[in-house]
Prior knowledge:
Helix content: 25-40%
Number of strands: 11
Number of helices: 4
Structural class: alpha+beta
CATH topology of the domain at 97-154 and 174-214 and 259-312: Porin
Radius of gyration: 54 Å
Strand order of the largest sheet: 1-3-4-5-6-9-10-11
Shape: elongated
Low-confidence stretches: 37-41, 53-62, 77-85
CATH architecture of the domain at 97-154 and 174-214 and 259-312: Beta Barrel
Amino acid sequence: MLKPSLRFASFWLAIALLSLAGVAEAKKKADAPPPEDVKLEDNESSKKSSDDATAPEDAKPAEETPAESEAGEKKEAAPAAADSGTSKSPVEEKGKTYHFVGARFRGLIIPSFVIGMFGDGGKTVFAPNFGPEFAIRRDNFEYNFSLTYTSYVMTDTTFKAPSDPQEAMELVNAHLKVLYLAADFVWSHPFSPQVALLYGGGAGLGIVWGPLYREQAYPVGSGWASCGSGPPPAGTPEPKASYCAPDPSLKTQHYAGYQEPSWANGGSKPILFPWLALQTGLRFKPSHDFVARLDVGIGFGQFFFGVGADYGL
């Protein structure tokens, strides 16, 4: 049996050992992370791992964003290119007004039967007509304003009034000029954006100038000859004697060099001449900026055919 002093020392040694073990255990517990922290770290680690795993997929759209942006720019650029092409298209938009400036040429024909409606004699006359034009067009209808010059030339043409006797036949030489200010009012029926049928009419007024010569004539064979500069001398054979004798109904005799005065001076030469016409034709528009036309029609005492070319403003 141990002595009391040894028993006391053994007791304190055991207490010390137990204390050291408790301190070590406490320190171990203090150093170890709490269960919640471990779980939180596990969740964060799991989330981080998940983010790392999905990061390449998220990064992929980011890489494709420029491509999508470039595709969007191409899509936006495509309409611009289309608009650029459309601006040169011959198609005309509904409700939009178009303006054209250009020139025209027409051949005016006065048939002999038309001249014969106003007297005896006459022959077919061809007169060139040309000048600038300006058109305003909208919804297949247009106003076409023109200022054109025309030259009517008729040489050595027999003519007399229907009520005059045969001895009153004269030779007419005309060199008349007319400046027409006119407007065409034309509808169109399109067959395609490039081709259309035209129909409508025109109206205007012409200013007339230039000489109109008249002189008495007598028959020679199948034709007529001028009586000359004055009455025939005595003993002139027929038919010249009777055809070339002075006309008592005239104040001024119509011998060589006689020039008919205008209305303003009491003569029969007009100073104004109307333009009234019905017309049809074809319109060609191969591009946005160019229009060509073929015209035919009937005017006041004359027929015409022509062409026109205009540039779009």
